[in-house]
Request: fold
Amino acid sequence: MQPVLTVPTVAAANLRRSSMLAAIIGGAALLATSLLGHPLMGVFVLVGLALGAANTLAVQRSVLKFAASEAKDKKRRFTMGVLGRLGVITLAALACVLITRPDGLGSIVGLALFQLVMLGGATVPLIKELRQS
Reply:
């Protein structure tokens, strides 16, 4: 009987915290862009943040599948899955940009913001742990 692989608690908690913070940032962006006369840009920031969160969740699940797989070509499958997912997310963000200029740029901004939030969420506990040791 093989052990059941799960996402580490720290990674799941980081995604949860980052998603909550991203929702707050997205709400603030929607409010700010609405006040500036571009409410659609705020909506696209929210879309970008959601794409970033969905990508991170998919990465966590993909890593679990990779670790549990005993297939010979698991590295290739993993790599193709990563490239495919990044391609779809990139195309979705670019479609937003091209279809609704200039407001669609909010999707790119949302993706970048989510990555910054995730990095910050992963860095803060690490710094705390280093200070304690």
Observations:
- Residues 83 and 101 are 26 Å apart (CA to CA).
- The chain has one domain: 10-132.
- The chain has a mean pLDDT of 91.
